[in-house]
Amino acid sequence: MKVFLEVIKLNFKISFQYKWTFAMTLLVQPILLFINIALFKSIYTYNDTSSIKGYGFEQMVWYYTAYYVILSFVWNGITNQISRSIISGELATDLLRPISVFRFMLASAISSRFVAILVDFLPGMIIYSLILFPAFLTLKSFLSFLIIAVLAFLLNYLFSFLLGMSAMIIKNNMSISAIREVLQAIVGGGVIPLEFMPVWLNRIFDLLPFKYIIYWPIQFFLNRVEGDNLGSLVRIGSIQILWIVAFYVVIQILWKRLIKKFCAAGG
């Protein structure tokens, strides 16, 4: 555990060197927010309604901002990182560390999210709130969101690591990573709220992990969870944990098999 914490501290310092990369979103997001405000104000006015698919004007505008808020908590580049380390031969060195590759990359992902929250999420929330205050947000819904977001981070990390392991077979997994990003954006509700999708299609999406990485954290953030908040938190959180356990077990089994066949560059 001590080694794991030291790795987090080291990667935090490394990630913080790229703080301006995170901060660039503070310049872009307000512009997109203004565009969404103008766009949806026209849509709501034209339809003479205060709600579309259950979304009020503020919630609809914030939906697309919330997508980037979620990414501040859950994003990682582990899938491509594993592929690059295999192609460059660095994975052979990684295997010699006094900490497993899985835990080392987890520490790296945690560190980068800490930086993103400090440099991107917190300042962003202040700036966005000054432009369009999220009146729908309550302390209870925000705390529920934090719990779901942390579980979403773990789920996304495990899913990314599992896909990254494909590089131990095909070496370059860029195409798999690209397909995953598209699916996660569409099926996870990043492109359009899933309420606009057919009911039967949403039933299929319920069986996939993407909704529990993107869509449900957004719903808790927007305070749109129907019924008892605690009951929904337990239900969604339990499904996330089931996915986390399932991915972890699969990773442990596959890693032991694949690492036996792994051959570093040059031999």
TrEMBL record:
**InterPro entries per the UniProt record, alphabetical:** ABC-2_transporter-like
Q: List the transmembrane segments.
A: 20-40, 60-78, 114-136, 142-170, 182-201, 232-251
- UniProt keyword terms in alphabetical order: Membrane, Transmembrane, Transmembrane helix
Instruction: Note the Pfam families from the entry.
Output: ABC2_membrane_6
Q: What is this protein called?
A: ABC transporter permease
- This chain's source organism reads Ruminiclostridium papyrosolvens C7
